[in-house]
Amino acid sequence: MKHPYHDYTLADALALATTLKKDRLIKDMKPTEARTMTPFTVENIEEAIAIMKLELRLSSFNWITGRVALELLLATNGESVTFIP
Fold first, then answer.
1. DSSP 37
2. So what's the pLDDT on residue 8?
């Protein structure tokens, strides 16, 4: 799936959610723990949506990439979405 107004795909949105999840977990780790952490991914679309909603809520600016990613994730999950150019 691709966003109708931006050059952004579902794969991009999932990669962003995975990076954000990893960054949140690493913040609370010791450096030695972070170096030995095994690779992981977001488990499902619902988890990716929750991550993006949290990050958008915590953001102190109009984060267009986060909004675009959330729009794609919601549409993929079968929810009604108004895509914003």
1. P
2. 95
